[in-house]
Amino acid sequence: MFVSHLAAAAEVGAYTFTTARFWATAAALLALAATVLAALARARAARGRGEGGRRAAVVALVAGLGAAAGGAVTLLVADGGPGTGNGVVAGGAAVVLGLAAVVLGGRVLARSRRADAPALAGNGR
């Protein structure tokens, strides 16, 4: 049984673009975009202009969470390791980059709430 499993896994070429690889790659690209967006939101928040990157941070947070979930599902349903056509490498990248986007986006939101708190408290008097 183990030998037949290895023979089935060897049938997929290294450059064959399977459905599992497609979904894992899509999740990884979404996670990469979310991480870049979160980094840009953090840079905007550091400048202190406008809305402070709050909207971009929320988008990065949601996209990062979705990408991390997609990568986790890919890893959970994978039958084999890297090179088997299951999208394991891209799924792992999606989880790591998605969580990085969630952390960066959350930090931007926390910073923007702290910056707005004294201003909101002063307006009510």
UniProtKB/TrEMBL annotation:
Transmembrane segments: 20-43, 55-77, 89-110
Pfam family of the protein (one): DUF6223
Keywords: Membrane, Transmembrane, Transmembrane helix
Protein name: Uncharacterized protein
Species whose genome carries this gene: Georgenia daeguensis
